[in-house]
Every structure is written in C-alpha cells, then in structure tokens.
Design goal:
76% of the residues lie in helices and 0% in strands. The chain contains 15 helices and no strands. With 285 residues, the protein is mainly α. This is Flp pilus assembly protein TadD. InterPro entries: TPR-like_helical_dom_sf.
C-alpha cells in the first residue's frame, strides 16, 4: 500500500504542467515528505502495539542505529524490550533515553518503571524523587505507591494509590495493587473492599478475583464471592480457598473445597486432585 500511494504522488508530480513554478515543486516535495513521515509513524505504531515484541525490538534497534541522535527510536526500542519482558536490557535502554537532551519526565517515569520490573527499587526511588512534584500522572503515582509499599511506608502508599486511582479512567489494576498492599499488611476487610471495586471496573481481572478469595479466606470466610466468573475460574477459586483453609488448620473444610474445585473444573484438575490425594495420605498415615 505504501509503494502504491507513493507512486501515485510521484505520478501527480510528473504530470504537472510545464509551467509549474518552483513553489509548486516545493509543495509536492513537502507532500511526499508528509506521506513518508505518516507512513513511518504508522509502522512504528504497528511495531509497538501489534507486532511480535522481539520483531519490534529488531525494528527499533535498526532504526536507532540509522539515526543515533534521534530520541524517538531509542524510546521505541526501550518500550519494545519491556514489552518483550527483556527487563534488564529494557532498563539499560531507558537509561540511554533519559541521557538524551530531549528526554522528558515521562521518559524518567518509564525508566523508573523498567528499574522496578528489574528489581532495582532503590534506583527507581531516586529517579522518582528527582522528578518535580508538579509532574502528576497516573503512572508516576502508581510507581510511587509501589515504592512506598516496598519501604512499608503505608500512609504514603495509601495516599499515592488514592491519587493514582483519581488520575485514570481504568483503575482496576491499581485498585488490585492497592488491595494486595492491604492484604500484605493484614487489613483483610480493606483489601476485600478494594478487590471488589477492581472487579467492578474489570470483570475479567482474575488476579483480583483470586486475591479477593485470599482476603475472604484469611477471615475464615470460605464462601465464593458473588462475582462474574467462568467455570474454570470457579474451580481455581475453590482451589485457592481450599489451600487457604488447610493452611489455617481448617482441614475438613479444605477437603470439601478441593472436591468442589474438582467437580467445578470443566477439565481434569490435576493440581486439586494431587492436593486431595496428599491430604488423604497424611490423614491415613
């Protein structure tokens, strides 16, 4: 499609009347350049959002070598590496981006994100601390909350999570993270509330459903929550509840929940059957 369109533009230029002025030729040249720029932008979008992540890495690596002074392909490469789950390389790539004179605070936030994915929490914290407080974005506050969590600074974490929720129209992920933070502190009712809210925004978020079951199980509430779920999810949630009950010493309840998990699963549920066999074996011994 690209070549057809470019040929059409060139054909129009070639068919211009002999009296065409220099200004007219300049306009045609600008039109061609606009098409090329638009074409490259479209290709970059495809590579970033649709293409295989490692193919995107190869694409942006090549462009970055061709244009070493251009920050755009460096950004593309860093994002592609993170998307490909090559976090060590991604963090190094983002370090090169933020060293560029055209780097922005958004780039620095993405660098911090890459460092957190790579387990370098202290360095990520330093980068976030250096960003002006007036730079307020959802991603910045979500990362600030995660860093505060890692430092067990609960009040700061809650404040950052609350701000992050306010700055997005799709808060299910950050609500789930906030709920898990509450769960890790032993605030099970607070965690349960946040997981329910996360599922309200995204009924497909199984992680929040599983975390909700953990929060309920920690309170010895072994009933499945009334949320939308598939049969396979129902089986997994029964399994999670069963293991929670067994760990808390409610062995017979756990045994019954394992049987529920096996019955609910539309396919063979090896993990639940193995746990039930191990439970029966320990009782017999």
């Amino acid at each position: 499609m690209r070549h057809v369109f470019l040929v059409s533009v060139c054909a129009i230029a070639a068919l211009a009347v002999p009296g065409c002025t220099t200004n007219g030729e300049a306009e045609v040249e600008r039109a061609v350049q606009d098409v090329l720029a638009s074409d490259e932008s479209s290709l970059n979008e495809i590579m970033m959002n649709v293409a295989d992540p490692n193919e995107a890495v190869r694409h942006f690596s090549a462009v970055a070598k061709e244009r070493p002074d251009d920050i755009a392909p460096k950004r593309g490469l860093a994002r592609a590496l993170i998307r490909a789950k090559r976090n060590t390389e991604g963090a190094l790539a983002w370090a090169k981006v933020v060293d560029h004179p055209d780097a922005t605070d958004d780039d620095r936030v993405d660098h911090a994100d890459a460092l957190i994915r790579n387990g370098d929490w202290k360095k990520a914290e330093k980068i976030l601390d250096a960003i002006p407080p007036t730079f307020e974005t959802y991603k910045r506050y979500r990362l600030e909350a995660m860093v505060a969590d890692s430092n067990k600074e609960w009040e700061k974490a809650d404040s950052f999570y609350e701000t992050a929720v306010e700055l997005t129209t799709r808060p299910s992920g950050v609500l789930n993270n906030w709920g898990y933070s509450k769960l890790s502190r032993g605030d099970y009712t607070g965690a349960e509330r946040l997981f329910v809210e996360a599922i309200t925004y995204d009924a497909t978020l199984f992680t929040a459903k599983n975390n909700l079951v953990l929060a309920r199980g920690a309170q010895r509430n072994y009933q499945l929550p009334i949320v939308e779920m598939t049969q396979a999810e129902k089986a997994q949630l029964f399994h999670t509840l069963a293991l929670t009950a067994i760990k808390q010493g409610d062995v017979e309840i756990g045994r019954g929940l394992l049987k529920e998990a096996i019955d609910a699963n539309p396919q063979h549920f090896e993990a639940a059957e193995r746990a039930l066999r191990a439970l029966d074996s320990n009782v017999v011994n």
